[in-house]
């Protein structure tokens, strides 16, 4: 399995296997995990930071955390890419909170952001899941769907959401919690 990530799409099972091997200290598995997922995770980090140099630094820290926490990954709770994306998103939001960053980079290498190619069956499953998520988001009370997207896609902090939606911080926390629960229930149907 030494193929380029551009020519091979890793399945959920192969990523679970790689994470399991990483948890045992397998550096070769870690290298393969990095090669197969770094573009996707860089895209998540960059979408929030909009700065290539800082995104690259944060991505290094993300993979260090993945190396350190691989043993805590539980495939029954989340998919490997969701687990790693959550680590990336959380670390990126920490970076935003810690530093006021410039708005954007002009010289971005967009080839680094592109997602790895997916097999047609994976694309179909992903598109079905996205359609279902879109429908579930539509079931949320207004403006909760917009708030969920701002929090989880754009990296807004709870405080920023409170300011944007002109609501107390406690209300935002409650809305987020209830909205996530509602989305989880809807996605299981």
Secondary-structure blueprint:
Elements: H1 12-23, H2 27-49, H3 52-69, H4 80-98, H5 120-139, H6 144-152, H7 158-165, H8 169-188
Helix pairs in contact: 1-2, 2-3, 2-4, 3-4, 5-8, 6-8, 7-8
CATH topology of the largest domain: Rna Polymerase Sigma Factor, Chain: A
Based on the structure, what is the oligomeric state of the protein chains?
A: single chain
Classify the helix fraction into a percent range. 55-70%
The main sheet comes to: none
The CATH superfamily name of the largest domain is RNA polymerase sigma factor, region 2, helix turn helix motif
CATH class identity of the largest domain: Mainly Alpha
Distance between the termini: 36 Å
* CATH architecture annotation name of the largest domain: Orthogonal Bundle
Q: Average pLDDT value?
A: 80
Instruction: Give the number of helices.
Output: 8
Order of helices and strands: HHHHHHHH
Low-confidence stretches: 1-8, 103-118
User: What is the total number of structural domains?
Assistant: 2
Number of strands: 0
Pfam families: Sigma70_r2, Sigma70_r4_2
Family: Belongs to the sigma-70 factor family. ECF subfamily.
GO molecular function: DNA binding; sigma factor activity
GO biological process, one term: DNA-templated transcription initiation
